[in-house]
Amino acid sequence: MISGALKILLESGGFDVTLAETAAEASAWEGPARADVMILDLGLPDADGLSVIASLDERGMKPAITFAMTGHNDAATIERCIAAGCDDVLLKPVPVQQLLRIVNKAVA
To answer: Which among 1, 2, 55 has a CA at the least distance from the CA of 24?
Structure first.
């Protein structure tokens, strides 16, 4: 439900959005080119979301910018995200306008 709302929000901001509900779907993504931005929830139903970064990187498909999205505001989680290759960590809930501003800045 939240991922669908984020998709609608970002599409209304003019972005092309591909939605993956699981780590397996995200890891298998084969677009025509690597994505500009990925917003990655750590709490995917089938695996730790950070596993997606390594899978995409192995195939040369790691997005230019990756944001981890988590509800855990602790140093260990943030360090783990950065070590895995995330450019920044967004703490849930992310205000709508802030999310749009962050994504717009990332693709500018």
So the answer is: 55
Other beta carbons within 10 angstroms of residue 63's beta carbon come to: 22
The candidate with the shortest Cα–Cα distance to 49, out of 16, 73, 71, 34, is 71
User: What is this structure's pTM?
Assistant: 0.91
| Nearest one of 58, 55, 64 to 34, comparing CA atoms | 64
Number of other CB atoms surrounding residue 26 within 10 Å = 23
Dihedral (Cα; 82, 64, 68, 97), 10-degree rounding: 130
Q: How far is CA 27 from CA 30, 48, 83, 93, in A?
A: 9, 12, 18, 24
Mean pLDDT on 41-59: 94
Query: Which residues lie across from 57 on neighbouring strands?
Result: none
Tens of pLDDT, residue by residue over 52-97, are 999 999 999 999 999 999 999 999 999 999 999 999 999 999 998 9
